[in-house]
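Work Package 4 report. The design task specified in the project plan requires that, given a folded chain encoded as C-alpha cells, an amino acid be chosen for each position. We show below one input record used in the internal validation round.
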C-alpha cells in the first residue's frame, strides 16, 4: 500500500516513513534476514525526512536505523 501511495504521490513523506517501518519490521522479526533490508529502511526514512522534516514517524524510523 505504501508503494502505491508513493507511486501516486512521490512527495508524500508519510508513505516513505511507513514503508521504512515495514522494512524495519521485516528485519526485527527476521521475516527477511538479508542485511540490505536495514539499508532500505534507513534510506526510506532519510527520504521521508527530506520531504517533511516535521514528520515524527520519519524521525523515529531514522532513530531505529
Amino acid at each position: 500500500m505504501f508503494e502505491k501511495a508513493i507511486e501516486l504521490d512521490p512527495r508524500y513523506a508519510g508513505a516513505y516513513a511507513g514503508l521504512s517501518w515495514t522494512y524495519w519490521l521485516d528485519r526485527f522479526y527476521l521475516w527477511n534476514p538479508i542485511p540490505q533490508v536495514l539499508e532500505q529502511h534507513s534510506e526510506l526514512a532519510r527520504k521521508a525526512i527530506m520531504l517533511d522534516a516535521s514528520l515524527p514517524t520519519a524521525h523515529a524510523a531514522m532513530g531505529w536505523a
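The CA atoms of residues 13 and 51 lie 5 Å apart. Validation will be extended to a larger panel in the next phase.
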